[in-house]
């Protein structure tokens, strides 16, 4: 009996270990490379072989001419001209530098879609305290199943060993502590219409990056959002709040609908469920290319490569919404592409799980860890959507910070463009820390007034 009990106990322990594996952090010697050949956030410091990707020398540390803090943003590279353009006619020359989604768009819109490629600038940076925390995380952070532990205030896995760690780097990328943006969002229909779906104010904060904290009392909430709609008229007064937790089962979102005059908790605010923040046209895990639960997928770190990705897109902020947002896709005259090294992460649906996109590939910029592009395949194995995320040089962060995003459906021709800041009196400003009840269901009940 005792022998049988012991065998049962051993089997139970083994099964638990398989269900929730714990992956160890890197050793001190390897972590020390963050001060030598790697940047403080984990990118390669050195230039590539031909110099088309320059060495990282500290990021963008200057000021942008004409830019006023808290107002409209300027373009630090406004005098630059494209080095070359990639079109449907010459794309074969650059095929190894293009994602599958970009190739599909070039073929689908051969007369209007192109990539204007500019000189590469490695503008990414963060405060010193974020660098210090990143170095600590390198030797203390672990994955306990799908939940990162032992990390705070910096990139959790600057030297990733698997795809799951890399994706958490994306989700926990540095973008400031607290900020707001006035924005528009648009649906691009397959018959060429541009439809305003949202005119709103978004307020966000990242408790994971609260500077004065140490992480000792950190409750796991890493990102919070409050979106209030002022238009179009049919959606004026709608509000949505959300709080994402490292333990994804503890994440929660609430919506206030003016017609009902009440707050409702969203029952399934994750994964491929449509989000009210985009009028139901994007799913929760398509925001910022990927922002959903990681537990439904197996994640493979497929390596690093040089790719053309949208980068340093202050350029688009200098024109009107109507000049940028055109039928079928954004106006390529205003979108800046650069050559950067990216981590390639492949996601495949786990057995027993369900998702509209059972296969995806994500391209994470090595300097910021933000996914600049992502491709999704449908259940038939056909390429379905290509997702994208623009970053902007923001010396006041300091850093190169994500904001405008969207997707193109390469099958139907539908598209969505979120967080377009161009027509607004201010683009993206960092603020004093918003109070916690700004992002809770209880707080939302007191904010809804229509």
UniProtKB/TrEMBL annotation:
<dbReference type="InterPro" id="IPR010752">
    <property type="entry name" value="DUF1329"/>
</dbReference>
<keyword id="KW-0732">Signal</keyword>
<dbReference type="Pfam" id="PF07044">
    <property type="entry name" value="DUF1329"/>
</dbReference>
<feature type="signal peptide">
    <location>
        <begin position="1"/>
        <end position="24"/>
    </location>
</feature>
<protein>
    <recommendedName>
        <fullName>Outer membrane lipoprotein-sorting protein</fullName>
    </recommendedName>
</protein>
């Amino acid at each position: 009996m005792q022998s049988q009990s012991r065998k049962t106990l051993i089997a139970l322990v083994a099964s638990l270990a398989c269900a929730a594996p714990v992956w160890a952090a890197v050793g001190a010697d390897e972590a020390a490379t963050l001060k030598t050949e790697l940047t403080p956030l984990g990118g390669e410091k050195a230039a590539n072989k031909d110099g088309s990707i320059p060495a990282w020398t500290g990021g963008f540390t200057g000021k942008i001419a004409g830019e006023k803090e808290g107002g409209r943003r300027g373009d630090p590279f406004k005098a630059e001209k494209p080095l070359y353009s990639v079109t449907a006619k010459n794309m074969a020359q650059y095929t190894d530098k293009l994602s599958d989604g970009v190739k599909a768009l070039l073929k689908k819109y051969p007369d209007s879609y192109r990539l204007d490629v500019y000189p590469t600038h490695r503008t990414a940076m963060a405060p010193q305290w974020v660098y210090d925390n990143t170095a600590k995380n390198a030797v203390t952070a672990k994955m306990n199943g799908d939940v990162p532990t032992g990390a705070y205030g910096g990139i959790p896995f600057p030297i990733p060993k698997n795809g799951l760690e890399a994706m958490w780097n994306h989700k926990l990328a540095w973008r400031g502590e607290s900020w707001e943006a006035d924005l528009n969002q648009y649906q691009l229909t397959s018959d060429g219409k541009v439809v305003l779906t949202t005119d709103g104010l978004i307020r966000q904060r990242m408790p994971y990056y609260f500077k004065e904290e140490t992480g000792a009392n950190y409750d796991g909430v890493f990102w919070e959002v409050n979106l209030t709609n002022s238009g179009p008229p049919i959606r004026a007064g709608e509000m949505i709040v959300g709080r994402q937790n490292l333990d994804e089962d503890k994440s929660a979102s609430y919506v206030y609908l003016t017609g009902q005059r009440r707050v409702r908790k969203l029952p399934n605010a994750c994964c491929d469920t449509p989000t009210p923040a985009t009028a139901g046209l994007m799913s929760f895990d398509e925001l910022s290319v990927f922002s959903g639960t990681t537990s439904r997928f197996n994640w493979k770190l497929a390596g690093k490569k040089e790719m053309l990705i949208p980068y340093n897109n202050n350029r688009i902020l200098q024109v009107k919404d109507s000049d940028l947002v055109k039928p079928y896709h954004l106006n390529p005259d205003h979108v800046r592409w650069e050559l950067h090294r990216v981590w390639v992460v492949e996601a495949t649906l786990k057995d027993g799980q369900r998702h509209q996109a059972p296969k995806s590939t994500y391209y994470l910029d090595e300097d910021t860890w933000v996914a600049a592009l992502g491709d999704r395949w449908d259940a038939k194995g056909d390429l379905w959507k290509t997702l994208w995320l623009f970053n902007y040089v923001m010396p006041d962060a300091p850093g190169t910070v994500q904001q405008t995003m969207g997707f193109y459906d390469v099958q139907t021709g539908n598209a969505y463009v979120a967080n377009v800041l161009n027509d607004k009196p201010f683009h993206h400003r960092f603020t004093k820390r918003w109070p916690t009840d700004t992002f809770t269901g209880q707080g939302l009940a007191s904010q809804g007034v229509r």
